[in-house]
Design goal:
Rossmann fold; 8 helices; alpha/beta; seven-stranded parallel sheet; about 45% helix; globular; about 15% strand
Length: about 230
């Protein structure tokens, strides 16, 4: 299995969960080394040629990718009237087009094997919207259409495509928020707390095993996006 952006945060938790259950795990990263037990390949999801080379390395070492978790993402938050074309394009190219490039490459082996799982890491923001994040919200909302189209196109070949939609998860980003702001955000979450990266990983494991779940959006947000 392959997790893009799997060297930190939610991506690392997902990779570790698969590793702990005995799967062969590969991750893409922009720089640095992969954690012990994982195969690390350097790749930028906005570069199709680099992705192709990364997949080739993974396939040579582990065989065809049976589970793809498209997790790599970025943010460039700004109010709409101040957001530049570059800020919008960069986020959509990484979060949405990057996930599409990964899926396009991964399904080659899945079609031959007549089995495969594609899990896109979306966001509650893609369902609720968020002021100052028009680019990010649009990119994450797009993953829903991508997953459902892929699922319809390849469902008959034993391939599923789903979205896991995390809410506020305890990461370096949320840790940097001021305590008063953390309390404000938590007050709007029915669970009354931020989630753990491992809780997102559990949802991804479920989708990787669920052969009859296709085109679904699985929220992991403590109820924040309930009803959306």
């Amino acid at each position: 299995m392959l997790v893009t952006g799997g060297n930190r945060g939610i991506g690392l938790a997902i990779a570790q969960a698969f590793l702990e259950r005995g799967d062969k795990v590969a991750i893409t990263l922009r720089s640095g080394e992969a954690p012990a037990g994982m195969l690390g390949v350097v790749a930028d999801v906005t570069d199709g040629a680099a992705l192709d080379a990364a997949f080739a390395k993974v396939e040579a070492a582990h065989g065809p990718v049976e589970v793809l978790v498209a997790n790599a993402g970025t943010t460039r938050d700004q109010l709409l009237m101040r957001m530049s074309d570059e800020d919008f394009d960069a986020v959509v190219d990484t979060n949405l087009a990057g996930a599409w490039r990964c899926a396009r490459r991964a399904v080659r082996g899945m079609v031959r094997a007549k089995r495969g799982r594609v899990v896109f890491v979306g966001s509650v923001v893609g369902l609720l919207g968020s002021a100052g994040q028009t680019n990010y919200a649009a990119s994450k909302a797009g993953l829903v259409g991508l997953a459902r189209s892929l699922g319809r196109e390849l469902g008959g070949r034993g391939i599923t495509a789903n979205v896991v939609a995390p809410g506020f998860i305890e990461t370096d980003m949320t840790a940097d928020l001021a305590p008063a702001l953390q309390e404000k955000y938590q007050a709007g979450i029915p669970a009354g707390r931020f989630g753990q990266a491992a809780e997102v990983a559990h949802a991804v494991l479920f989708l990787a095993d669920a052969g009859y779940v296709n085109g679904a959006v699985l929220p992991v947000d403590g109820g924040l996006g309930m009803g959306h």
